[in-house]
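Action item from last week, closing it out:
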Amino acid sequence: MKKIKYIIFTLFTAFILSSCNNEIDAVENLNNPDRNQVLANGSDLLGIVRGGYVTWWQANNRDLVPPLAVAADHATCSWGNWGMRALSNEPRNPIQNSSSWSDLSVLEQPWAGNYSSISSSNDVLGAIEDGIKWIDGDEDLTPVIEGAAYLLRGLSYGYLGLLFEKGFIVNVGDDLTQTFPFVGYKDLINQAVDDLDRTIAVASDNEITIPNTVINGVDLNSEQLIKLCNSFKARFIVQGARNLDETNTIDWNEIKSFAQNGITEDFGPSGDDGISWWSNINVLMESPNGFGAFGARLDMRVLNIVDPNQPVFFPAGSGSTLENPEISTNDNRFGEGKDFEYRPDILFRSERGRFHFSHYIHTRFMNDDNFSDGNDSKQIKSFMLEDNRLLLAEAKARLNELDNVSGAAYDLNQGSRVNRGNLSPLLGTESKDEILEAIFYERYIELFNTGVGSGFFDRRRTNQLQIGTFRHFPVPSTELEVLEEQLYTLGGVDADPSGTEPHYNLGSENARTDETNIPTFN
């Protein structure tokens, strides 16, 4: 088994402390503090955890949003920022996993950021094991720090498991000079679930509240923390599946239980106007903080679900147009002043492939006072209550028992399908497949621009990614080079049709210009 050395992000802790120096006691040199000094006081631990959450957020919920959305054919865009053009090319090309790729940060940011957050969590948990406590007056607040640290570590391992083919697991007290074996994505997700269970245990045994300075604007008491952990366990297990076979082998009774005990309100940090807590969802909508009218559009594959008279792909031929560019739908989320608005002009560059074209753009930010564009002070909805509701409905549908299927229909009728889409309520007599079709309709429409990678993970687990689309990221080449490991990549119609077989063929093909090679899905 290949092995990897665990690299400590030494500058990270120094940065966090220098940015939170009002939290630190008895640290003489804040620019280069000694680790033992940093972890010598209980109040110091809060600053470490807080900084770890900022790093976790920026690693997973910021620049990753656009490339995963376009790779999933959830959104579409011809611009080259954040690897969008490279990762949405038709035919699909391999990920350019080399140090020369200008968008390598798409891989590096979540890899380094999540492991940096794990490092922070382990430092804090190790200090607690060594007897460091956070005492405020007569109150022992150490369980607050412990619960926050386990949650941070669980979230970090969970996103590593969602995003990467493999990684490694480091626990408190491990010898950081040793080599650590690579483990697969399933092991990373199992570790995340274990850490979320540890968080639940802390919250169950103690009345705690994680203050809103840790996750910006979000207070989490014990009850809310337990619910959040249950929802994230459901997300990581369900969306971590790499194909339909893995989806079918999920313990859906377990997912049903998690979702039933999950969040009861939308979760997400308050934005801080683009300082630390922000997201590039503004790239995937018409927002003054993003690309404006040049922003990414809703992909034709989704529009075809909304209106089956629309083609699955915008015609790729030179000068091609749609016969009926405006869709016909009863869904109240489409139309002027709604979530998605029609635009007669398409501002993408034709020579980059007209298959990128679409006439519909996300405008919910402009028309819904509760919806953030990712660069303001509103709540950035990273786990919506509707997402949890749809996970519960899916669990019931996949159990495929009469009372569960009718229960799934009831759940759908209580949510966005009827309340926001104004679509006809389901009768409760629909088949499992009909219920699932309604569920994924809502996941693609209602959850657009919420949980990072949601559309990508949903298409992946239902065998609906284009042939040659990577199903997860490789370990970044810069990391492999430092560790003297063999370089590899994933994806490419010719090199890796399934998106799962490691290789090192970076050869790419030009964008298609006609209808002779329409992509298929796997």
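Closing note: Residues 1-33 have pLDDT under 50 and may be disordered.
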